[in-house]
């Protein structure tokens, strides 16, 4: 159920909280490095062979000691590195993190394309429908690499309808049910060799989330997370590399059909994605001419995005995988506890309507409402911010929750509240460091960015000036600091901002004043 069908705010009985699991410490090879091993080998020789005293650096024995120390250093480092790469808490390579996820069926989220709503307008009303080809491309000027938007007819949820022309109806000046999706469409053709477990690597990267369509001899096959074991079906799986290159995998005849030898395999997919596609309203304006059916004339059509481009996502990083994988493994795709609801909701992603950024599950403090769970949600905005959840995303989340919740639970999806906070930092630095003002400013900004990282914050967390000052201790040149806050609530300001269970703090503007004394 969405928030519109649930009752208003009720005092909670309990709120989902993460378990205080002790993080796994990183294994390190302290006292196993070259210098330590050389010293220990020398001491060992002195103990075992007291008559040996020739420890001159140019001696042949010292050369052997150094060789053994070098070999020991390398072996020790590699063994500790391998041990660290086997655990999600200490893994350092995203390839290894993705492999750890595959063991339990978890797959990192690839990049997601930003979407915006467009209008198509003509200046003269026509007596016949004017078709505009699906997937019309427009280049968007950027400071970096070129960016492309493709235009499609939109369904009621503002999802693109692939392969269906955009129509300006007869008697109308415009069509506003057009969705622009950042990225470009590519089609590749392969030929099956008839063997089991065939894998086809797609050429272009990064491949967008949920954008791959596969046809075998003109028949569309279904993408699945795992092949059906009961009988072979027309199914395929997708795996991604750390650069989000996609690999299309077919079955072995027991789980998933094997495409017949010589079959034509056509794979259509989209590439692009990322926060760079999040454009502002009205930033795309262009005009194209299209032929009027049955007439030898072209009509100019003006296109513009009347909403901002939103929901672009760069794809999961290693930090995202570290956060998501334990939650995925713990919930097992079934919402039993309050934390299960939170974990499953936080991992909910859609290809065109955004993804959930933060949620909290609350049990109502009423005997007759013992099975009613209020799920407060906010959508992800870029990589480190939040925004209100759109109606389409709420509806899709509600449908998903119905498939994983306990049968006796009644879930109300409600809007979380963002408390935006301005931070004013006054620091005192010895005047000797005045020439390093820009570097100090950058270090303070970096410390604040790390402090306000979305992964460090949850609903109900209070903001205390002492916590910010503690975060600033990483800047070594600061002798003292004072921090004050102002928020979008005029009643909450000063050296502490307190939130309620459905509110979460996010930073707005930061002012840094450096005083040299």
Features of this protein?
5-stranded mixed sheet, alpha+beta, 517 residues, Immunoglobulin-like, 7-stranded antiparallel sheet, globular
Could you describe the 3D structure shown?
This protein is α+β, with helices and mostly antiparallel strands. The protein has five domains: 52 residues; 100 residues, no CATH class; 87 residues, Immunoglobulin-like (Sandwich), CATH 2.60.40; 84 residues; 97 residues, no CATH class. Helix content is 21%, strand content 31%. It contains eight helices and 28 strands. Strand 17 and strand 18 form a beta hairpin. Helix 1 crosses helix 2, helix 3 packs parallel to helix 4 and helix 4 crosses helix 5. The N and C termini lie far apart (59 Å). The mean pLDDT is 90.
């Amino acid at each position: 159920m969405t928030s519109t069908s649930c009752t208003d705010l009720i005092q909670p009985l309990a709120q989902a909280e993460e378990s205080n699991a002790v993080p796994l410490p990183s294994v390190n090879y302290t006292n196993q490095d070259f210098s330590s091993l050389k010293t220990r080998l020398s001491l060992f020789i002195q103990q075992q062979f007291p008559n040996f005293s020739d420890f001159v650096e140019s001696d042949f024995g010292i050369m052997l000691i150094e060789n053994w120390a070098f070999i020991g250093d390398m072996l020790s480092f590699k063994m500790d590195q391998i041990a660290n790469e086997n655990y999600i808490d200490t893994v350092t390579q995203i390839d290894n993190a993705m492999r750890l996820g595959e063991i339990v069926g978890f797959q990192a989220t690839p990049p997601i394309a930003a979407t915006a709503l467009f209008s198509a307008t003509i200046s003269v009303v026509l007596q016949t429908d004017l078709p505009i080809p699906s997937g019309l491309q427009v280049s968007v000027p950027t400071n970096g690499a070129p960016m492309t938007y493709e235009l499609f007819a939109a369904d009621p949820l503002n999802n693109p309808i692939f392969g269906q022309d955009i129509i300006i109806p007869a008697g109308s000046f415009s069509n506003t049910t057009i969705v622009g999706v950042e990225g470009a469409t590519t089609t590749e053709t392969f030929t099956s060799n008839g063997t089991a477990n065939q894998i086809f690597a797609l050429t272009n990267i990064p491949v967008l989330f949920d954008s791959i369509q596969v046809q075998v001899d003109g028949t569309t096959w279904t993408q699945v997370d795992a092949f059906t074991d009961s009988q072979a079906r027309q199914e395929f799986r997708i795996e991604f590399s750390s650069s989000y290159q996609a690999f299309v995998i077919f079955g072995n005849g027991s789980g998933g059909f094997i495409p017949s030898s010589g079959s034509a395999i056509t794979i259509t997919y989209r590439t692009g994605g990322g926060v760079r596609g999040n454009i502002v309203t009205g930033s795309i304006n262009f005009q194209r001419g299209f032929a009027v059916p049955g007439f030898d004339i072209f009509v100019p059509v003006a296109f513009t995005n009347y909403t901002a481009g939103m929901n672009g996502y760069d794809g999961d990083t290693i930090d995202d995988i570290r956060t998501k994988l334990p939650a995925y493994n713990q919930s097992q795709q079934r919402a039993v506890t309050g934390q299960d609801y939170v974990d499953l909701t936080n991992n909910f992603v859609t290809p065109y309507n955004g993804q959930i950024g933060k949620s909290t599950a609350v049990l109502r403090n009423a005997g007759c409402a013992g099975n009613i769970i209020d799920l407060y949600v906010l959508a992800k905005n870029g990589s480190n911010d939040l925004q209100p959840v759109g109606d389409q995303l709420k509806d899709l989340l509600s449908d998903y929750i119905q498939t994983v919740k306990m049968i006796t639970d009644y879930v109300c999806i409600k809007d979380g509240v963002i408390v935006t906070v301005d931070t004013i930092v006054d620091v005192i630095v010895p005047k000797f460091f005045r020439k390093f003002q820009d570097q100090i400013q950058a270090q303070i900004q970096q410390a604040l960015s790390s402090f306000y990282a979305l992964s460090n914050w949850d609903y109900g967390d209070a903001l205390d000036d002492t916590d910010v000052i503690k975060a600033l201790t990483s800047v070594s040149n600061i002798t003292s600091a004072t921090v004050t806050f102002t928020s979008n609530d005029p009643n909450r300001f000063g050296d502490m901002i307190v939130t309620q269970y459905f509110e979460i703090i996010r930073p707005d503007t930061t002012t840094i004043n450096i005083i040299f004394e």
